[in-house]
User: Fold this.
Amino acid sequence: MTNLKVHSSVPADLEGGLAELRGDCARMAPHWAVPEHRASRPVPPSLIHGVSVPVRSARLLDAMSDYGD
Assistant:
């Protein structure tokens, strides 16, 4: 098994602000690959299946005003 401990001469600043986070992200951005954009195709209705909800859960959701109204 490999020892994955990382040793750094600079302690991690866990209380950094938003500006520091944005700077870190800007420095990391060039290292991220952007996947090729693929055009989405419609899904044929034969591949769409319904959702099964247990009766007990359906009653619970029906009783909640956010979902039942």
